[in-house]
Amino acid sequence: MAESLSSGRGVLSALEGRGCEFCADGTLVRERYKGNRAAVCDSCGTPRAQFWAISGE
Ligand SMILES: [Zn+2]
What we know:
Number of domains: 1
Largest sheet: 3 strands, antiparallel
Order of helices and strands: HHEEE
Number of helices: 2
Bound molecules: zinc ion
Helix content: 10-25%
Strand content: 25-35%
Structural class: alpha+beta
Radius of gyration: 11 Å
């Protein structure tokens, strides 16, 4: 967890397009989740990672 928070953008990029761990058919996409950047499953909607302190694009 600490690892994902320390390098947020790289982790998000790495997660994007990966299969979901929580359902069979999902693919992770970059989305906003509750106002934060996250990689969210496009099938079940489970957020894989969220980042709070990262600003800019
Ligand atoms: Zn899923």
